[in-house]
Amino acid sequence: MSKYSIHKADSRGDANHGWLHSKHTFSFAGYQDPSRMHFGALRVLNDDIVAGGMGFGKHPHENMEIISIPLEGDLEHADSMGNVTVIKNGDIQVMSAGTGVYHSEYNKNPDKPVKFLQIWLFPNRKNVKPRYDQMSLQAADRHNQLQQILSPNPEDAGVWIHQNAWFHLGKFDKDVSVDYQMHDKNNGLYIFMLGGDLLADDQLLGARDGMEIWEADAIKLRAVKECEFLLMEVPMEIHIQE
To answer: What is the distance between the alpha carbons of residues 23 and 12, in angstroms, rounded to a whole number?
Structure first.
């Protein structure tokens, strides 16, 4: 029998710095909740809005897999590996911090906000060589089906990371249903709702709600009305190879 826990949208940490408005699913910076530290290897899920022309100055990371999924606007990335890029809605960006990297993220536009998901996963290998990648996704590939956008395998669809994790996006019309099959029985699934209403194993989720599911082989998903969501399958135990 699978187990689950639901995180309602309004239960998240709320940090409004003026130039940045961030909702934290898990403990982050000034928001600390001992019951919301991480879900297996999923350490950070921040729902960020950055004001026009503003952003995060150069700062360091190490031994973390960092994924950015833009939802609206244009986000400019620069890092110590020499990458300077702009990502927008429809793109996914990944950075393996490994032995250490500096990067900055700014709203490319001075007159409108940029909205994006900032996601951190614990890696399964420590002190890897830092790497960066991004790609553009086809929106049609998630219409009424699950679109794989991340995996542990460089040859698979989407970007890859140093972790036994799979991410999928779905944008479903009303009454469309699918069973999500877990890739690894030791993994759990975190569902994050971008919009609309979805039944996940008969539990109703609305916009910006989240749901943790573990000890499951498959999860039944059905759109109550048009909806969009992100699935994050991650290991429930954290093992980092030295």
So the answer is: 6
Residue 1 located in a structural domain: no
- Residue 74: give the domain boundaries: 12-136
| CB atoms near residue 110 (< 10 Å) | 9
Taken in order 186, 127, 56, 106, the sign of the CA dihedral is negative
Q: Using CA atoms in the order 3, 220, 119, 100, what is the torsion angle rounded to 10 degrees?
A: 80
Residues 207-240 pLDDT 10s: 999 999 999 999 999 999 999 999 999 999 999 9
Task: List Cα–Cα distances, 19 to 9, 85, 88, 233, in angstroms.
Answer: 21, 21, 19, 32
Q: What is the pTM of this model?
A: 0.97
Give a yes or no: residue 61 inside a domain.
yes
Give the integer Cα–Cα distance in Å for 95 and 228.
24
What is the edge-to-edge ordering of all strands in the sheet holding 159-160?
3-7, 210-214, 187-195, 227-235, 166-172, 146-151, 159-160
State how far the Cα of 176 lies from the Cα of 152, in Å rounded to an integer: 28
